[in-house]
Amino acid sequence: MPKAGFISLGCPKNLVDSEVMMGILARNGYEFTPRAEEAEVLIVNTCSFIAPAQKESIDTILEMAEYKTFGAAKKLIVAGCLVERYRQQIIEQIPEVDAVIGTGELENILAAVEGQLRFDAGAAASLPSYLYHDLTPRILSTPQHAAYIKIAEGCDHPCTFCIIPQLRGKFRSRHFESVVREAESLAAAGVREVTLIGQDTTSYGEDLGLRDGLPLLLERLADVEGLQWVRFLYCYPNRVTQRLLDTIAAHPRLAKYMDVPLQHASRSVLARMKRGSNGDAFLQLLRRIRKTIPGVALRTSFIVGFPGETDADFRELCDFVKAAEFDWMGVFPYSDVDNASSFALDEKVDEETIKDRQNRLMEIQQKISGRKLWRFRGARATALVEGPSRDTPLVWEARLEGMAPDIDGKLYLNDIEVAQTDRQECLSYKTARPGDVVTVEITETHEYDLVGRVVEILDVPRPTALHSAVTGPVQRVSTGAVLRVLA
Ligand code: SF4
C-alpha cells in the first residue's frame, strides 16, 4: 500500500484532526513514514490562526511540494485552517497541490489521496460542522501514555482578534457517552493521561442542553480505571463556575490544573477585544480557584500590542501579572489578521513596541516562575514518566500534575533507577519506563524547569497488550508517524 507522510501544524485540536485523517487512511491500508522523501502521498494539515502561522503553513507546503520532484511523492494534499481561509488561492497559486480539505471535511481524505475529490469552491461558503466520535478511526501520534480528546469544536465567542469561528465554525459539543467511551478505550490501550480540548471547553454541553456539562463529564471521566490524570485546557474566564472548581477539588484523578487564557487585564483593552471583565474580577476568580483547589497550577495567555493598548494599559497588565503569580504563562504579540474585526480598529501599536512589551512581560513572569518552582526544592512528588529527552541526551523527561504536555515546563530526570530489596534481602534495580507513574525527589529548580530523580516506581496496573484491549478503532503506530508536529 502507498506510504503517506503527515505534517501537523498548529494546535492540539489540529493534531487530533491529523490523527483522524491518519486513522481513515490506515483503515484503508495506508502505511505511514516519518521520511518525507519516502512518502508517495504528503498531507500538510495547516494552521492559519495568525500571520506567522499562515506563513509557516505556506512555507511547509512549498517545502513538501519539492518532494514531488526530488522524492517519491505523487500527491500533495493540503488540509486544515489555511484551506478555510485560502481554499481557491491554494489551488490556483500552488499547482503542486492536488486537493484541499477544510477543517470540516476530514472524511474526504481518502477521496483526496485517491484523486477522486473534485475541487468544490462552494465548500468555502458553508461553515464547518463536522465532529469526530468514538467510532471514528484515529491513529494516536502522542507518546503512548498521553492522548488528547477533542470534546467540542468551533466557537461562538466574538473576540475581535480571533478568526477561529470562521475557520472552525459554530460551537458544537461531542456527545457525552461518545467522549466517555473514547476515554475508556484510550485507558484500556495504556493511556495514563487524557487532555480534553476544544476552543472553549467550559461551554461543553450547552448546545446539547446540558447544564454544567463539563463538571458532569469530568465526574464521569474521574471514574475511568487506568487513567492517572484527566486534564482540560482552554477555559473561558466567565464560564469558570464554582461547580466546576468543586468537581476538580473532589476527584483525585482530575488534575489540579487550570488553563484560563485571559488575553489582557485592562478593562478598556478587554472591551475592545469584546471579552469584557477586568483585572480585579480576574484576581477574584484566581483567589476562588486557589481557595477551592489547594496547590492548583494556573496557566494563562495574554496578547500584547492590541490596537489602542496604551502605556497605562500595559502597566496595568504588568501589575496584574505580578499580583496573579501564574505558574505558566504565554505572551503573544498581536497579529493584525485582515479578516479579524480588530483589523478595522484604529490606534495600531508599532511592531517594536509590541516586541518590547512581549519581552518585558515575559521577564516579569520568568522571575515569578523561578520563585514558584523554588518551593519544589527537595520535595517529593508524583510524576508521569515521558521517556528519553529530545532536548538533551542522557536525561529523561517527566511531568508533574501541574505540567500540561507540550506547553509548560518540564521535569528532567537524571536518575531513573530505583534500588529495591526482595524478601530475601537481595538488592536489585528497577528502571522506570515511559508511562510509569513514579515518585520523584526534586534536586534542582530553574526558571521554567525542574530536575529530579526517581525514588519509587508506583505499581499502577498496566493493560497487558495494546491492541487486544482496544475496543474502539483507536490505533497506535510508532510516535514517528507524524512527520512533524509544530505547535
Ligand atoms: S474564545 Fe478563543 S477561539 Fe473563541 S473567539 Fe475567543 S479567542 Fe477565538
| Overall pLDDT level | 92
Tell me the number of structural domains.
Answer: 3
Going by helix content, strand content and strand pairing, the class is alpha/beta
Q: Provide the low-confidence segments as ranges.
A: 464-481, 483-487
Biggest sheet: strands, sense, closure? 6 strands, parallel
Distance between the termini: 30 Å
Number of strands: 23
Give the count of helical stretches.
14
**CATH architecture grouping of the largest domain:** Alpha-Beta Horseshoe
How would you sum up this structure, described in words?
The chain has 487 residues and is of the alpha/beta class. It folds into 3 domains: 3-124, Methylthiotransferase, N-terminal domain (Rossmann fold, 3-Layer(aba) Sandwich); 139-374, tm_1862 like domain (pyruvate-formate lyase- activating enzyme); 380-459, Nucleic acid-binding proteins (OB fold (Dihydrolipoamide Acetyltransferase, E2P)). The protein has helices spanning 12-27, 51-65, 67-70, 81-93, 109-113, 164-168, 176-188, 213-221, 242-250, 267-272, 279-292, 311-324, 351-374, 466-469; strands at residues 3-9, 31-32, 41-46, 75-80, 99-101, 138-140, 146-150, 152-153, 172-173, 193-197, 229-232, 257-259, 297-304, 328-333, 380-388, 396-400, 411-415, 417-421, 427-431, 437-445, 450-457, 474-476, 482-486. Strands 1, 2, 3, 4, 5 and 23 form a 6-stranded parallel β-sheet that branches. A 5-stranded mixed β-barrel has the order 15-16-17-21-20. A hairpin with a 7-residue loop joins strand 15 (380-388) and strand 16 (396-400). Mean pLDDT is 92; it is low at 464-481 and 483-487. Bound molecules: iron/sulfur cluster. Iron/sulfur cluster (SF4) binds next to helix 6.
